[in-house]
Amino acid sequence: MFKRKEYGKSKVDECPFCGKRAVTENSQDIPVCKDHKHSEIEGMKCVCGEWLDIKKGKFGPYFSCMNCGNISWRKGIEMNTGVKNQNKAKSEAKSKPELKEKNETVITSREVDAYYS
Fold it and tell me: CB of 34 within 8 A of CB of 20?
């Protein structure tokens, strides 16, 4: 059996910085979310140690290495997980307040009148 194709679900771009759905492009023509519109990706390296150049083609952005050739966008991001993790750590440190533990009280049917009267 196969799953039917749904309109608009074939290609969903996500922001390389935070993982949210990409709705716009930055100055490098990379699909990003609205929060990272002015952010740029820098310092991407290939497995061989060469720097990766960001290019844009018919099917979206991709990387180009002098030794290895063209590398898909997904593989290039996976090779450089520090981009996503570094920016994710910064955003979590700013946005997440500490959560307090909630105390749970169990009330039996006999004690209901004492608590709610």
Answer: no
